[in-house]
TrEMBL record:
Subcellular location: Membrane
Name assigned to this protein: Tetraspanin
This protein's encoding gene: Tspan18_0
Lineage: Eukaryota, Metazoa, Chordata, Craniata, Vertebrata
The UniProt record lists the keyword Ribonucleoprotein: no
Recorded superkingdom: Eukaryota
Source organism (scientific name): Nycticryphes semicollaris
GO CC terms of this entry: plasma membrane
Pfam families xref list: Tetraspanin
């Protein structure tokens, strides 16, 4: 009976580690996608040092979970006590780190509000100055997502009016409609846009556009994180039970 129980525990341990392996692969894929994606996510991440750091943390955690899931599967099948103990200690450290990260993300979530981005834009944005990292990043976001400012073109009324051509209105040319949403895209009508003709301008704010674009992914990422934490917890329990059962 004890042998059957140990055998059952071994295969349950293998199963949970297989899910950890898959979870690590998913996190690894998400981290790589966020860092190298050419469609605009990279610009959003680069605009905020906290998000930029978070992307690399996700990448590192994915790689570690990927490796530990593989080691856990090997430890369970081969019934190696040292490998199981090594697996348990590292999973525990990762579990605590992920839990701490989730708590910090919840505490500092107010840094990602509409008001925060609006204040930051009005304070640091230098219109068409693409030598400035903050301004060029915002221009890239507005062009990629066909949006203007955080709330809309009215955000730029409070931005200092740096030297510009006589035709330019208060909005930057990054808010002008293009046939293709990229830096190489041809303007629909640049002159009309800059002189204030609204139908040639992108009038919707970037906050709403981006929030709508990634709302599904945010919930998916949250559900994935909860799932990974639950799987890690069960894997630690099974690892310790299997460790104690091996003679």
């Amino acid at each position: 009976m004890e042998g059957d129980c140990l055998s059952c525990m071994k295969y349950l341990m293998f199963l949970f580690n297989f899910f950890i392996f898959l979870g690590g692969a998913c996190l690894l894929g998400v981290g790589i996608w966020v860092i190298v994606d050419p469609t605009g996510i990279r610009e959003i991440v680069a605009a905020n040092p906290l998000l930029f750091t978070g992307a690399y943390i996700i990448l590192a955690m994915g790689a570690v979970l990927f490796l530990l899931g593989f080691l856990g599967c090997c430890g369970a099948i081969r019934e190696n006590k040292r490998l199981l103990l090594f697996f348990f200690m590292f999973i525990l450290l990762i579990f605590l780190a992920e839990l701490s990260t989730a708590i910090l993300a919840f505490i500092f979530r107010q840094n990602l509000t509409r008001e925060f981005f609006t204040k930051d834009l009005k304070k640091h944005y230098l219109r068409n100055n693409n030598t400035d990292v903050f301004s060029s990043t915002w221009n890239s976001v507005m062009i990629t997502f066909a949006c203007c400012g955080v709330n809309g073109p009215e955000d730029f009324e409070a931005v200092p009016h740096l030297p510009r051509s006589p035709l330019e209105s208060t909005i930057p040319e990054a808010c002008c409609q293009r046939e293709l949403q990229s830096w190489e895209g041809v303007f629909v009508n640049r002159e009309a846009c800059l002189t204030g003709v609204e139908r040639f301008q992108n009038r919707q704010g970037c906050y709403t556009v981006i929030l709508n674009s990634f709302e599904t992914y945010v919930y998916l990422a949250g559900a994935l994180a909860i799932g990974v934490l639950a799987i890690e917890l069960f894997a630690m329990i099974f690892a310790m039970c299997l460790f104690r059962g091996i003679q």
